[in-house]
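Subject: for your reference before the review

Hello V.,

The reviewers asked for a structural picture of the protein, and I figured it would be easier to keep everything in one thread rather than splitting it across files. Below is the amino acid sequence we used in the manuscript, unchanged from the supplementary table.
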Amino acid sequence: MGNNKKQIGFFEKYLSLWVAICIAVGIGIGHFAGDSIQVLSNMEIYKVNIPVAILVWMMIYPMMLQVDFSSIKNVGKRPKGLILTLVVNWLIKPFTMAFFAWIFFSKLYSAFISPEQAGEYIAGAILLGAAPCTAMVFVWSYLTNGDPNYTLVQVSVNDLIILVAFIPIVGFLLGITNITIPYDTLVASIVVFVVVPLLAGYLTHKILVKQKGEEWFKNVFLPKFKPVSIIALLLTLVLLFAFQGNIIVKNPLIIVLVAIPLVIQTYFIFFIAWFGGRKLKLPHAICSPAAMIGASNFFELAVAVAIALFGLQSPAAMVTVVGVLVEVPVMLSLVRLANKWKY
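And here is what came back from the structure prediction:
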């Protein structure tokens, strides 16, 4: 039985280590490069940083290749799991994330963080909370023996909902935190980082499957893109921390302070989805991925939008990056918990 134990891929398993290394490298580059690093920071079009936009697109496009919208036709067969996912992701998660962020950054951390900074930290958390996981959830589903076809349905429907729900939810939650919302930048970010790669991924999938077949697409083409996504993520983090370096050196405790509400939110949402699924009598193969989707985040989108809205050196961008740092070890702990509670 031990031989059948499922393993996470090498890069995914040690993603938090790679992120930590990138943090150190980025801070070092920022320290030694000084003001010359600002050249990259100033390369913008409509407030979207060009080097970061290219890297983020390289992150997101390989994920969108996996989305198969034809699977959505099977939604009606077992709707309860999908309903649970949608309720947790869109009616609960963004609001609990905003609440935890408000409690910690505005109240508990008021001795360490100014009200202006607190607003941006909260904004970064909101961006994470409003972006449910797209890619890594396939890994978490696999590790907990989730139904891969149903997971695909859940992810595909979530990607469609992001197109219409992300901007209104983020706009509403940022509005109640008294942050000015540049809707033009927010809309541009969704177009650049979701709509375009989603269409590109869909067209690539459709064309290549028609020409080469589904088996070639999944077993030959897709694996080639796996390292591209992770390498682009790591290079993005190097850039971010090159700009954030001075802030972190002056206040290294900030990463720990930011991580605490994000970790609490992750466990909180997992338990809501997990026990909600048990209450609905969902089979483990559907309940587990539903809980994993809710607990994890589409951090690539959150990072991109935070940079577009608030800048490379902003507290909001810092929160989304810390989200990447804590997500893998926390999610692996939830994988172990889901397997322990298997029913």
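For the response letter, the relevant points are probably these. The first strand starts at residue 44 and ends at 45. The two ends are 17 Å apart (CA to CA).

Happy to draft the paragraph if you're swamped.

O.
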